[in-house]
Amino acid sequence: MKTGFDSLADMPKKVLKACFLLTLLLSVLTAGCYESLPGLPDAGDASDAQNGYDLEEQASCAGCNGPVCIASLSGKILFEDGTPYKGVVSFCIVQGCLTSNTDDQGIFKRKIPDGCRAFDFTKEEGIHFSLLSIPEGGWTQYSVSFKPAQDEVSDLGVDDFDLDLGTHYYYRLPGDKVQYTPENGADISNISGLSFSVPPGDLGEEQQQVRVLRFPLKGEKPAFVPSNLDLDVLYFVAPYYVKSKSGIVFHIDASALGWQQGDKGTIYMLGDFANLNHLECGGNQVEVGTMAPCGEATFENGEIKTDPLPLLGWFGVKKTG
User: How much is the pTM?
Assistant: First the structure.
């Protein structure tokens, strides 16, 4: 990366000092980003894209060895039919959380407060980008984690040190729904090939609408699914990130998946922070925006049966043997 200086020796002392102080500050900041959610700054808006940035300040950050330097976050949000989403998105970095509004094209750009920041993603969590729930409901939500290398962050031209988060989509949920009540629970029978029972009181003391989306995996996958993770099936189950007191066992119609009696697989769940809940698998908290192993699945009598899962959300299954 070009910094505007031929060597460290040519850099002004105040620039080197700023680099050192910034790196030192990052090394002592350890608080998890989502703890600051109640005190989010006011949302930025698409006009942030018109604001100029202090290129001298960015160049000083770029002079640091090692950390990735980022001054702003940008991207685009659409509904699955291509209609732009106009509303609020959320980002969390190691120092805290930010929000931004999208414009009429679904585009957002959010400057990181206090200018360019250095991130060392070998030692800290990634930047978490979240599609939040929307008032009209009936759409999926999720978070994605980004851990870019410096060459994935633009440092040429007008968007110096802007991390482009790409295009993300809200996916519509099918109309089928089952009412959960604390008194009776809920029984879901073969909605999009998924069946499961929720005991009375298992999802809390409020009525909930249980909805299921089986995501088609033949096309483009959601951004939170790693390119090297070849899932056999992927589901979204609402209400999103509501915990189950007893754990929910899912039964998946496997007639078109090619599994055979006795085949086993790994369950992957998406880590997130929603409804004040984190995901824990195997006693460990899963990083927000990442798919993590969270149990096993077995093919029995024509269906795939999962281990009990701790909450509702995104989960997928991959055959392992």
Answer: 0.80
Q: Could you state, in order of their start, the residue ranges of all structural domains in the chain? A: 8-166, 178-319
What is the pLDDT tens value at each position of the chain, 321 positions in all?
333 333 333 434 333 333 333 333 333 232 233 233 333 344 444 433 333 334 444 444 544 455 788 989 999 999 999 999 999 999 998 878 999 999 999 999 999 887 788 888 988 899 999 999 987 779 999 999 999 998 888 876 666 789 999 999 999 999 999 999 999 999 999 999 999 999 999 999 999 999 999 999 888 899 999 999 999 999 999 999 999 999 999 999 988 898 998 899 999 999 999 999 999 999 999 999 999 999 999 998 889 999 999 999 999 999 998
Phi, psi (5° rounding) for residue 14? -65, -30
For residues 34 and 49, what is the distance between their CA atoms, to the nearest angstrom? 25
Terminal CA-to-CA distance of the chain, rounded, Å? 45
178-319 to CATH, choices 3.40.1000, 2.10.80, 2.60.220, 2.60.120: 2.60.220
